[in-house]
Design a protein that fits this description.
Elements (H helix, E strand, L loop, with lengths): L1 H14 L1 H7 L4 E8 L2 H6 L3 E2 L5 E7 L2 E9 L4 E17 L12 E20 L3 E16 L4 E17 L3 E15 L2 E7 L2 E8 L1
Length: 202
């Protein structure tokens, strides 16, 4: 018992600041950002569909996202992120010889991903912080033919770097956004590998 009291007395200077530290700094954060569309450019490109339709003239918006986070401790934050991207293309009906037989149709798909998430900050020295995170939610895919589909979604932040002052700052993240129903229905796999953002904290 005496040894335990001595140990607690020795550790007290280290333990006592912890509750206060959890109250210092920011509690709320909003962030806006954009992520790359490398996966989309590789997966969705000019080709002929199974029915002979030619898909061409692809355009991609990349990922635009907004999020809110609440910091419970200097290490753990929880929040919610919404990510949306658009893919635009032309569909041209073709015959068996791949000659156009109908009018082209300009199609577009939108992928809306909704992710509750948790973030872990393992380095924070005022102006610079390092963190990782994970989010699990749902992707809603819809197009201008009024089709809607849903799929489970997983967002990973392998490494995030934040730089800024007390309120304003920016981030760069390496990670991946994934959503699929099965092997033949993959919406995203390792999408948004790199993203940048700006945040405000209070």
């Amino acid at each position: 018992m005496r040894k335990l009291l001595l140990l607690l007395a020795a550790l007290a200077p280290l333990l006592l600041p912890l509750p206060a530290a959890a109250q210092d700094g920011w509690h709320h954060q909003v962030r806006l950002g954009w992520g790359d569309m490398l996966f989309e450019t590789l997966a969705y490109h000019a080709a002929y569909g199974a029915d002979g339709t030619r898909l061409s003239d692809f355009c991609y918006t990349g990922h635009f996202f907004a999020e809110y986070d609440y910091r419970f401790t200097p290490v753990v934050s929880v929040g919610f992120q919404a990510d949306i991207e658009g893919i635009y293309f032309t569909e041209t009906p073709c015959d068996a010889l791949r000659k156009p037989v109908g009018d082209p149709f300009r199609g577009h798909n939108q992928f809306l991903t909704l992710l509750p998430q948790v973030r872990f900050t393992y380095f924070d020295k005022g102006l610079v912080e390092l963190y990782s995170g994970v989010g699990l939610g749902v992707l809603l895919a819809f197009d201008n033919r009024r089709r809607v589909e849903a799929a489970p979604a997983l967002g990973l932040t392998l490494l995030g770097v934040g730089v800024g002052n007390e309120h304003w700052g920016g981030t760069v993240e390496l990670g991946g956004l994934n959503a699929l129903l099965h092997a033949n229905q993959v919406y995203m796999l390792g999408s948004r590998l790199i993203s940048v953002g700006v945040h405000y904290r209070w």
